[in-house]
Amino acid sequence: MAVRRVVPNVQSEAAEESREFYGLLGFEEVMNLGWIMTLAAPSGPTAQISFMAADKTAPVTSDMSVEVDDVDAAYAAVRESGAEIVHPLQNEEWGVRRFFVRDPNGRVINVLGHR
């Protein structure tokens, strides 16, 4: 299993203001689903940051997203380790397969793969 990207998820009610501020640093909007907006650096498109008010389908907002090349293998490894699954593995309507897990620091990690 390989990590493709890691994205901090900032819980925020100021998405528009954040887009403007981070635009000053060279970030551009690459995704906006209304409840989550992701900005990326054009010179390095895996350098990203997301802003969301609340998650559309999960009971909590994740602190970080980790995209992997095999989300099913990641899910199996995490379950086998005994880590707390916060949101079960599922396919989302916006084209990702994901689950949430709590890390040893208490942070909620959104582990995903694109379908």
Summarize the structure.
The protein has one domain: Roll (2,3-Dihydroxybiphenyl 1,2-Dioxygenase, domain 1), CATH 3.10.180.10. 17% of the residues lie in helices and 48% in strands. The protein is built from two helices and eight strands.
Q: Please count the helical segments.
A: 2
How many beta strands in the DSSP annotation?
8
Strand content: over 45%
Q: Choose one word for the global shape.
A: globular
Query: Rg from C-alpha positions?
Result: 14 Å
Task: For the record, give the distance between the C-alpha atoms at the N and C termini, rounded to a whole number.
Answer: 15 Å
Structural class: alpha+beta
**CATH secondary-structure class:** Alpha Beta
Q: Which H/E pattern describes the elements?
A: EHEEEEHEEE
The CATH superfamily title:
2,3-Dihydroxybiphenyl 1,2-Dioxygenase, domain 1
Q: How would you characterize the largest beta sheet?
A: 8 strands, mixed
CATH domain fold name:
2,3-Dihydroxybiphenyl 1,2-Dioxygenase, domain 1
| Biggest sheet, spatial arrangement of strands | 2-3-4-1-5-8-7-6
Number of self-contained structural domains: 1
Protein name: Glyoxalase
Domain VOC: 2-114
InterPro entries: Glyas_Bleomycin-R_OHBP_Dase (IPR029068), Glyas_Fos-R_dOase_dom (IPR004360), VOC_core (IPR037523)
